[in-house]
Amino acid sequence: MPSYKRLEVHTKTTDFRAATCLVEEPELPKASANSVVVKNHYVGINATDVNVTDGAYTGSLPPPFGCGLDAVGVVLDVGEGVTDVKVGDAIAYRKLGAFAEYNEVDMAMVVKVPAPTP
């Protein structure tokens, strides 16, 4: 099973580089019911990400936790009950932890798009 990388907040601060570290996960996520696994092609980077790393948007959530809030990519796997998208479809989504090569995403946060481009 292939591994993948994701960016994780390990300490809360407005210094994004000091707040985050690259983590290698030993295996790809699996799609659970009503979710999909996506291979990210692009992620959205903006000032909101500093509000995540300093705790303004994450409140009492203790580190470590994933960072990044939105991305676009291609569906690799679909969970039970998913009918709106299929493997190979391009999607956009919102999820805390979007800064990752792969992600499991609940379908409530997914929008089908024509192509996995920004």
UniProtKB/TrEMBL annotation:
One of the record's GO cellular component terms: mitochondrion
GO molecular function, one term: oxidoreductase activity
Entry superkingdom: Eukaryota
Chain ranges of the Alcohol dehydrogenase-like N-terminal domain: 33-114
Pfam families: ADH_N (PF08240)
UniProt cross-references to InterPro entries, sorted A to Z: ADH-like_N, GroES-like_sf, Zn-ADH-like_protein
Protein name as catalogued: Alcohol dehydrogenase-like N-terminal domain-containing protein
Biological source species: Phytophthora fragariae
Lineage: Eukaryota, Sar, Stramenopiles, Oomycota, Peronosporomycetes
